[in-house]
Specification:
The complex is a heterodimer of chains A (293) and B (133). Chain A is α+β, with helices and mostly antiparallel strands. Chain A has 7 helices and 12 strands. In chain A, the strands form 4 sheets. Chain A has a 4-stranded antiparallel β-sheet with strand order 9-10-12-11, covered by helices on one side. In chain A, strands 2-4-3 form a 3-stranded antiparallel β-sheet. Chain A has a 3-stranded antiparallel β-sheet with strand order 6-7-8, with no helix packed on it. The chains are: A alpha+beta (293), B alpha+beta (133). The interface between A and B is large, with 65 and 54 residues.
Amino acid sequence: MPQMESTQPINVMLTPQFYTLKKETLPLKFAYQAKRIAASVFEGMVPEGRTYEYFVYKEGDRWVFIAYSLEEIIEFLQGKGLYPESISKLFFAQQAVDFFREPYLLSDKEVLGVVDEKVVLVPRSAVEDEALHTTMKLPNPKKGIAIQSAYASLLSLKEALGFAAIFLLFALLFIAEGVRYGGDTKAKTQELESLIEANPSLSSRYTRESIAATYRKIDEVERKKRETIKVLVEMVSKGVALQALYMDEKGFQAAYVVKEPNAIRRIESQAKKANFTFQKSTEGIKVEGRLCI
Amino acid sequence: MHLRRYQNEMIVAVSLLLMVAAFLFKEGQISTKEEQVKVLQDSVSTIQEVMALKEIWDDKQADKKVKALHTTVAPSKVKWSQKSKKVTASYQGLSVEEFNTLLNTLLNLGVKIELLDVKKADTLYDVELKCTW
């Protein structure tokens, strides 16, 4: 058999050297029953060392059992350039027994013919030249071994293209979304540029962070001073008079003269709430605290 | 290995890879943009914060505004010294109302209070004040 190359899936009809045949008359009704006992039919008939599979069909009132090694067949076909994915179905010459009643020239030395209702290889010399056929239109038997489905792609081309189209559509959507997100910082950049233009001293990130830190510290300390003064002034009420107040950068002290005993508790509560230190003295009340942060 | 055998799977795999790459591209763009926007937003916020804080604590009009601490009480009760960006004031015999007005004025000015020393004598207050800006 010469080297072959196929772009379309093809059917292959196997000659007798690729299978072992046996015909039996058995009281079986269905092919699956025959297939179940096929292994026992060929016991001792097929060489060991290979895995055999079985093909069964009914021919008249007899069951035809065929044992074949798919491994061996594929090895041979691959050697000839025919890969499993390019083979649609495998048939056995026996399935076309009627077509081989007229001998078919297989090679220079061999002829396919029928002997005792079995397709066999016959030496070419045993057949007259006139009786030989070199071309033959073989039929596709009803049953065959669907080799492509076992070895070829899991997906059909149509399914693959369908999936690919969906994936590509999503890819396009993602790219479009990515591009849309990518070019959307212009407004913020312009805002920053205009701010820097108005404040050139703040153009450097480190400079502005440093300036911001300085002002944040001033803001924090000065706000605390003002809040403290407000709280200290709020402590003044009926019967309570501010006697002295001292405040510098580090802390403060305030002294009150209290004439209303009930006011002491209120001032104490206000002082605790503001985290000030509260002290009673003979002259009145002293409130103090720290301002350093 | 016969690649044709896997042709259909390869079509699906390549398109799937493209989709994953596009997804990663999109995610990358989003995170890059978010990071850029965050950096820009931080810069804008910092500048705006500095501007706002400068307006309060580095007010160019502070020299004039601080004079309110001088004018809020009768001139006879104040010893006023203003040098460069520093004021030292000494108030004597302030009534409660005058003292309250002075405190309110001080609290609403964007100056750094270095010293506030208040002493009450009878019903009147003496105040020492040092502030800068």
